[in-house]
Amino acid sequence: MKKFYSLIITLLILLPINIFALDYPSINSKIVEVYDVNDDKVLYEIDSNKQTSIASLTKIATVITAIENIKNLDEQVTITNEIMSTVSWDASKAGLKVGDKVTYKDLLYAAMLPSGADATNSLAILISGSIDNYVVKMNELAKKIGLKNTHFVNVTGLDINDHYSTADDVRKPADDVRKLLNYALKNKLFREIYTAKEYTLSNGLKVTSTINSKYGKNKDVTTILGSKTGYTGNAGYCLSSLSNINGHEMLIIVLNASQIGSNYYNIVDTLDLIKFMNENYKEETLVKKGQLIKKIPVTLSKIDNYNILSTKDVKKYLPKDYDIKNLKIEYKGLNSLSFSNKKGEKIGSVKYYYESKLITEEKVIINKEIKMDIIKVLKKYYYIIIGVIVLIITLIVSKIKGKKKKKRKQKKMIRK
Predict the structure, then answer these.
(1) Max CA separation in the chain (angstroms)
(2) Predicted confidence band at 323 (pLDDT cuts at 50, 70, 90)?
(3) Which residue in 29, 48, 53, 56 is the catalytic one?
(4) I want to staple 176 with a disulfide (CB 3.0 to 4.6 A). Which of 145, 147, 309, 393 is the partner?
């Protein structure tokens, strides 16, 4: 029996046990990416290198292209019959009508919030003369920001051959949709539009964010700060969203999600991921301010060691199951000091790494006076000091003898 228990204990010791491994929520969407804007890092992804249709997320490109090509946002334009004739019957619309007089800024909001194809087509034709000409500008933008595997054919995202997006060919590991959104959100006006919940056009038409008007009725979507929804038969239900999770901006992209009953899994998955991230990711303090980093021996001083202490809290945004063993602290500088080193002198630097990536670094400055210890100096240089004293005494005696000898010679000369 004892042998049996010993065997069980041995097996338990040898078996790898991941008690603290994070258990991510079950996800319906076929393509997912969670991206930390602050740290420029993908935290979670599912098949993000798969080519796919991106539905109305295309309108992110449509709107940012428009913003970069409109000279006067407040210029008033007229919605024509020619423009409206290009809008597909099955496309989502903002509610624009032939003869409406609106501004370019109105059209941007109408394109993004209710995902209006009437607004996107208006922007394309009014800015470039035709949708085809405008799509050229969108593809030029895609190339400029490095979307190597994205190609636009229309401004709405409706299913059509050769209209797609996928991840980089080398998976760096960023999805093209996320890269596009991240680029667009750096534009102040785009961010204002993307995070708006509703907007009233200059003609009185009120438009509301799709996530609030459609999905917000049954779900609490307050954790989603900004969004763009999308749906086509090929793309499934899609959603790009912006959230703030424990102080870090997150972009969450979900594509090819299903609708099961009353559940739209582009929303369900996004909310589950936000909840999961909120519960499991935060700024962890890896090194506290004042923590001992290294002791440097000090010679001939009243102190034996000089303590290098961290001058600040060293923090890193990490999951709660992070391993402190992945922290590396590297000191480069003097490895010994003495009373000759002065207060305010830089003696080196400390770098903090997590998983081989630099978190931060700081200079090491002597912050107190290092005083000489006379006893230690005397002990260390005893023989040298004695030798010097003997030499000095010898020189003095020799000099005195020389003077006496000189006087005796002078006296003898006087007598003669």
Answers:
(1) 142
(2) very high
(3) 56
(4) 147
From the CB of residue 188, how many other CB atoms can be counted at a distance below 10 Å? 9
Predicted confidence (pLDDT) at residue 412 exceeds the cutoff of 70 = no
**pLDDT greater than 80 at residue 167:** no
Distance CA 376, CA 225 (A): 66
The CA distances from residue 368 to 72, 289, 295, 343, 346, in Å, are 61, 17, 15, 5, 12
Give phi and psi for 221, each to the nearest 5.
-105, 20
Give the HSE-up count for residue 61: Cα atoms under 13 Å, Cβ half-sphere: 34
| DSSP letters spanning 91-141 | S------TT-EEEHHHHHHHHHSS--HHHHHHHHHHHHSSHHHHHHHHHHH
Question: Which strands form 41-46's sheet, in the order they lie side by side?
Answer: 41-46, 31-36, 248-257, 236-245, 226-232
Separation between Cα atoms, residue 12 and residue 17, nearest integer Å: 9
Judge if the upstream peptide bond of residue 173 is cis by omega within 30 degrees of 0.
Answer: yes
Fold held by 288-365? Peptidoglycan synthesis regulatory factor (PBP3), Domain 2 (2.60.410)
The residue written with tokens 């929303």 in the block is 267
- 115 is a catalytic site residue: yes
Q: Could you read off the pLDDT of 219-242 as tens digits, one per residue?
A: 999 999 999 999 888 889 999 999
- Please give the structure tokens belonging to residue 249: 């901006």
31-281, what's its fold? Answer: Beta-lactamase (3.40.710)
Helical pair 58-69 and 176-185, crossing angle rounded to 10 deg: 30
Give the C-alpha separation, 29 to 267, whole Å: 10
Q: Average pLDDT for residues 214-220, to the nearest whole number?
A: 84
The catalytic position among 48, 53, 59, 209 is 59
Mean pLDDT across 360-377: 91
What's the chain's length in residues?
A: 416
Answering whether pTM is above 0.85, one says no
User: What's the CA gap between 157 and 56, in Å, rounded?
Assistant: 5
Would residue 29 show up in a list of annotated catalytic residues for this protein?
A: no
Answer yes or no: is pLDDT of 334 > 70.
yes
Span 294-321, pLDDT tens digits = 999 999 999 999 999 999 999 999 999 9
Nearest Cα neighbor of 248 from 288, 228, 287, 277 is 277
Tens digit of each residue's pLDDT (9 = 90 or more) over 8-33: 444 443 433 333 468 889 999 988 99
pLDDT at 138 over 60: yes
